[in-house]
Amino acid sequence: MKINKVYFPIVIAVAVAVGLLLGSKLNPSTENAFLSRNNNKNKLNKLIDFIEKEYVDSLNTDSIVDLTVNGILEKLDPHSVYIPKSQLEAVEQEMRGDFVGIGINFYMYNDSLAVIKTIANGPSEKAGLKSGDRILFADKLQLYNKKLETDTLFSILKGEQGSNVKLTVYRKSEKKKFAVNITRDVIPIKSVDVWQMMNKTTGYIKINRFAEKTYDEFLSGLTQLKKEGANHIIIDLRDNGGGYLDSAVKIADEFLKNKELIVKTKNKKDKIETTLATEKGIFETGKVSVLINENSASASEILAGAIQDNDRGLVYGRRSFGKGLVQREMPLGDGSAVRLTIARYYTPSGRSIQKPYEDKGENYFNEFDKRFESGELYEKDKVKIADSLKFKTKRGRIVYGGGGIMPDIFVPLEDSHGAEGLTMLMQSGLVNYFVFEQLDQNRKKFEKISMEALEKELRSGNYFNNFKEYMAKGGLLFNLDTQKDKVLFYLQAEFVRQLFNENAYYQLILKKDNMVNKVLSK
User: Fold this and answer.
1) What mean pLDDT is predicted for residues 152-166?
2) Hey, CA dihedral for 329, 331, 337, 338, is it positive or negative?
3) What pTM value is reported for the model?
4) DSSP secondary structure string, 290-335?
5) Which residues are catalytic, by number?
6) Which CATH number fits domain 98-188: 3.90.1150.10, 1.20.1090.10, 3.90.1720.10, 2.30.42.10?
7) pLDDT at 416
């Protein structure tokens, strides 16, 4: 299971020491201003000391500091955030691209830890664990009937590389209980979901985020697709919220010619840094198409903007999120960190695609309802564009800034209003659980089934009605009878994912992907 992305401690002693060291070099007016700011910092420190020493009730002053830090950052921009010590490890693992564990995808099923799938070549697969196994104990710690949170289970199953854990396992399909020793190892968290050929000349690469190892993963895929004959690459950045700028820049460099501009950044001192492509790109002449949607942000927008502004390829989809701010993660010395905005970035044409952030709350991060109601998810002309934010690409095409990357070729959310609800439902965790339970009833039946036989089984069996009943029990009242083919298609896709692998899943799901089909039709 994937683990789902620098602290501003109020350490005044350090600030005072720095102030003293620099004080003799400040002119009087600057010195007075500095001391005034320093007094404000001392005020916060004194307040926390008073609470800690004198307040009538016992309090954890760490939690007060956390509130203070969050309060300060809330006055800045929506992307300057505090990462508590308890969350920093998970965030770093996500961005690093690996963690140490036993290598399983799991979820809590009827209050027991059920293995959905072992990770290929991971410790659990090597030790013989299978889909459907229940892990009852980790060493002597009972895991069932305990109502343990997912984060707690992660911390139990993770550990030091090379450390051992003895698992007590129940295999329902064989009705037996057994013990197995597993040696924890490094488990990769892939940021490139898949690469595959769509036809004889078109390759497809899906990037889910930009982490430390994304470029290496991407380059492996791109190299392989070239060997297989691809002269057209589709880069899928949909629902990619960003990550490391450097990874996006390196990927852009593979497509752009030497010295073409990739991105510019400008800090508070108006210092501008430009990043140019190098001579090393391995795909500088083939056709490129980039897919984006309303959840493509930050590094995704940098990559899409570099391809678009250099007229290197076409961008398909819907207006992206609109994040044009650069953060740096800064450790605070106590295991926590603050991720602070240090610059704005600009696409090669000079666009800032940062959307307004007067509202820094939930509405800023989740604009889906607003875009849905305005109609822009279905019609390109519904997007409000300011003429004052007009820019030109390298060849003179008009592009706009001020709120995300506008695609060159618009692809609506669905063919018609109302269809998006069912699509979201069929791509939700609900379907994952339903399929797991269906498999769990008779795993031997599906053990060696082929793709063709699986489709026949789903269409001839009672799975559609079973799914309707499953939804009804969960209180979800959808009229699915007119959408039976679509429901069965998505059910088949999830069966394929759990029985086979991600490649097989994408081979199936992309056949009915509107955006991919739009690219292939050009």
Assistant:
1) 90
2) negative
3) 0.85
4) EEE-TT--THHHHHHHHHHHTTSSEEEES------EEEEEEE-SSS
5) 298, 309, 323
6) 2.30.42.10
7) 56
